[in-house]
Amino acid sequence: MRLVVVSGRSGSGKSTALHLLEDNGFYCIDNLPAGLLPELARQANNTDLSLPKVAISIDARNLPSDLERFPELLKQVRDAGIHCDVLFLAATDEVLIKRFSETRRKHPLTDGNLSLGEAIAAELKLLEPIIDLASLKIDTSHLTLYQLRDLLKQRLLSSQSNSPSILIQSFGFKRGVPVDADLVFDVRCLPNPYWKPDLRPFSGKDQQIRDYLDAEPDVQDMYQDIFHFLQKWLPRYAAGERSYMSIGIGCTGGHHRSVYIAERLVRELSVHSSNLLIRHRDLP
């Protein structure tokens, strides 16, 4: 049996994730009281029921006391031999406020005493016990609904192997660091093709940019350092039973240097690693 716990901040895309899992054969339950998690897992694992894939949503609508007990409840499930992934969806405060304002929906924690901004902050505090144990964190701040569905398919549904799913993501620091990144490499010190007018329109996926950066010694030195670090340590992370990892490569705008490094890393690490994914957050 496979169990997926879907959690996250209100407005971050939990309903989208649950609907996707349901479309892919999961028996789904929204807003399960967290205290019922061990019993639900036990019942679903009963061979008579035949529920090989179950997904449940646990979020801030739960009792605070149950959310505090989540680490203990999850341990009971895993001690029973049930494979359980915890997916946590996040977004920045500014993005969440904009989403609630546009849809005119009520945040589950807002009342006469709490503003929307205060409710969003309070929710994050309530969910800390789940955040700390999340197997997979995804920042949806810059994702459309369709991009989120595609990313969830790639990361949650595409592989059933024992090796971890590793996402290498380029990004621009001017739009913020991805909150779901486990490791971040800053390549802003490298020569920037942006300042070459004839190269500016291209991205790090284009041959013109690759030729320019290939010829820069500092680029090659930094690339080799990052490559050898990941080549050495990714197997150690995998040995630590991590199911998912996200590696961020950041430059100023997320168009040239970070894209070049990310593309090259995936190309060369794929020789010895499976389940490598790539995403360019800030490319048009």
List keywords for this structure.
4-stranded parallel sheet; alpha/beta; 284 residues
Description:
The protein has 284 residues and is an alpha/beta fold. 41% of the residues lie in helices and 18% in strands. It has eleven helices and nine strands. The chain has helices at 14-23, 37-44, 64-68, 70-79, 93-103, 116-126, 128-131, 145-157, 207-214, 217-239, 257-269, and strands at residues 2-8, 27-29, 53-57, 83-90, 136-139, 165-172, 183-186, 244-251, 276-280. Strands 2-3-1-4-5 form a five-stranded parallel β-sheet, with helices on both faces. β2 (27-29), α2 (37-44) and β3 form a beta-alpha-beta unit. α2 packs parallel to α4 and α10 (217-239) packs across α11 (257-269). The two termini are 39 Å apart. The mean pLDDT is 91.
Provide a compact summary of the structure.
The protein has helices spanning 14-23, 37-44, 64-68, 70-79, 93-103, 116-126, 128-131, 145-157, 207-214, 217-239, 257-269; strands at residues 2-8, 27-29, 53-57, 83-90, 136-139, 165-172, 183-186, 244-251, 276-280. With 284 residues, the protein is α/β, with parallel strands linked by helices.
DSSP strand tally? 9
Rg: 21 Å
Strand order of the largest sheet: 2-3-1-4-5
Largest sheet descriptor: 5 strands, parallel
- What portion of the residues fall into strands of 2 or more residues? 15-25%
Q: Mean of the pLDDT scores?
A: 91
Order of helices and strands: EHEHEHHEHHHEHEEHHEHE
Number of alpha- plus pi-helical segments: 11
Weakly predicted, low-confidence segments: none
Instruction: Tell me the span between the first and last alpha carbons.
Output: 39 Å
So what's the overall shape?
Answer: globular
What is the share of helical residues?
A: 40-55%
- Counting helices, strands and paired strands, the structural category is alpha/beta
